[in-house]
Specification:
This protein has a two-stranded antiparallel ribbon. The chain is mainly alpha-helical. Helix 3 runs parallel beside helix 6 and helix 4 packs across helix 7. It is 63% helix and 6% strand.
């Protein structure tokens, strides 16, 4: 009887152990699923360049968003003024800046010789900016649209719009 009791206790312990492993695996799966869902909700993944700048190619993780916020002005500034003008239009259209930015955008376009709609359509950087694709000075591209509507995503978009607005003001002065 003692041997049967010990066998039963050993079986129960083994069952509890396997159950714990299964629960841990289930917990791990839940975390992985949550991380995947977060990535899918934001549209994909982000990459980090050798210099530490983060590029939101088709979306971003929370870490990448925080990295953009902490990356300084270089990670969210336009590499060209034609891209900056497009980004300013994107920011106005999506209510990320005041509507009076249109006047500044038009001044930038005038200084670039891009008042004509045909010239605007021929300028890739400007067209990409209209779509929310910020081509940074560090040869990275941040897709503002893919940052999502989370508070952190909105904060990154607003910071990018503010930095590009400052670039536009410096350019026309």
């Amino acid at each position: 009887m003692k041997a049967a009791g010990k066998l039963l206790i050993a079986a129960m312990a083994a069952s509890a152990l396997f159950s714990g492993v299964a629960n841990a695996a289930s917990w791990q799966d839940q975390l992985s699923s949550a991380a995947s869902a977060l990535g899918q909700n934001n549209g994909g993944s982000a990459t980090t360049a050798e210099n530490g700048a983060t590029s939101a190619q088709s979306g971003t993780s929370l870490t990448a968003l925080a990295g953009l916020l902490n990356g300084g002005s270089q990670s969210l500034s336009a590499g060209t003024m034609s891209n900056a003008a497009g980004i300013l239009s994107y920011c106005v259209k999506n209510n990320l800046v005041d509507n009076n930015v249109d006047a500044l955008k038009n001044q930038v376009l005038g200084k670039l010789g891009l008042e004509d709609t045909q010239k605007q359509q021929e300028t890739t950087d400007y067209q990409q900016g209209l779509l929310g694709l910020l081509n940074t000075g560090s040869n990275q591209q941040v897709n503002l649209k893919s940052l999502g509507e989370t508070p952190l995503g909105k904060q990154v978009k607003t910071k990018a719009c503010d930095l590009v607005l400052k670039q536009g003001m410096h350019f026309i002065s």
